[in-house]
Amino acid sequence: MNQDIIADIKKDHVEKLLDAGKRVDGRGFDEYRNISVEVGINERAEGSALVTLGRTKVMVGVKLSVGMPFPDMPDSGVLTTNAELIPLASPSFERGPPDEDTVELARVVDRAIRESGCIELEKLCIEEGELVWIVFIDLHPLDYDGNLFDACTLGAIAALKNTYMPKLEDGKVDYKTRTEEKLPVRDTPVEVTYCKIGRHIVLDPCLEEEEVLDARLTVGYNEKGEIVAMQKGGSGTFTKEEIVDIVRKGREKAEFLRQHIPG
Q1: Which of 10, 25, 127, 201 is deepest in the core (most CB within 10 A)?
Q2: Phi and psi for 169 in degrees, rounded to 5?
Q3: In whole angstroms, what is the distance from residue 258 CA to residue 176 CA?
Q4: What is the Cα–Cα distance from 91 to 102, expressed in whole angstroms?
């Protein structure tokens, strides 16, 4: 059967359910799937977290190294966020160089962390203009069933708050000796994703919903409820009123997500 016909059948099925006030997995329109967050699961990383969002599962690791600062920020540490979408997590993921989805995921997660000032990068300066701590955040989806943005951001923040500084001696890092000093984290940003399918807007799309969505909107909030990131996806559009409503409801959902972060 033609793939376009199959896609139309799937979309028609999901829309008819929504018209009847139902979702494919039985949730309410404004309800997250079950969430669990575990930290400290990878002893080889300075910080780590495992997030389960429904059947979506992601592992996030934080590694620290030392290196040169950026010329325009000689007294600040460096933040780098990377994602890897492997076939083991989903048949739709392919091996090879990062594709658009991989780059988008890393950038959206990075933006919320960076723009919220989550990490006190100025405290990661070792010698101005010469040596600073570099923070690497690695996002690894293990099972993909929709909404990697929220799951990966939640995992990144949980891992950062669980990161301990390794021992530094004579400009060299002793990874075998972990100190009691935690990475300086001052904010807990999270991201909330809604999608539009036909005339309906739902929170936390599962994979079946993502495959037929018209538009997607991910909003990042800091602890004060201020918007620190926003990413729109899909070929469809949102009205001004829909965006305002998503932002308002998303602020409440952000507080709900933070309750799942250990510590």
Answers
A1: 201
A2: -140, 120
A3: 31
A4: 15
